[in-house]
Design brief:
The chain is mainly beta and 119 residues long. Helix content is 9%, strand content 44%. The longest helix has 6 residues.
């Protein structure tokens, strides 16, 4: 599967976190992710979301999307001590390699493309 933003390829190695357990674990205890990796959290309903970086020992970028897959907020998170809350209600959260938002020019209002049913 390919994850795209505004028609540009963001990641080719895509995984999904749908269950509460998968979402609670996220990238904890993982080794550094590749530049082409993205973990997409699919929330059961549109809701407020907060994230932490406990047990993640490398920086990542986080992209918060609404139910229309439009960017609400982007954030770069620091290892171990990073936290982030999105002010708006979220349906999807994308965790990807550090610096991806900046290098791809991803900003609020951009549209993402992916099949949430996944592979």
């Amino acid at each position: 599967m390919i994850l795209k933003a505004n028609g540009k390829e963001v990641a080719t190695d895509v995984a999904f976190a749908r269950s509460l357990h998968e979402q609670a674990k996220g990238l904890m205890f993982s080794r550094k992710i590749s530049e082409n990796f993205a973990l997409i959290f699919v929330m059961k309903k549109v809701q407020k979301v907060s994230l932490h970086m406990l047990f993640v020992n490398y920086p990542i970028d986080v992209i918060f999307l609404d139910e229309h897959k439009k960017v609400i907020k982007t954030s770069s998170m620091r290892p171990w001590i990073g936290t982030c809350t999105c002010p708006g209600k979220v349906k999807y959260v994308i965790e990807t390699s550090h610096g991806k938002s900046r290098t791809m020019g991803i900003k609020n209002g951009d549209e993402f493309e992916f099949d949430e049913r996944g592979p």
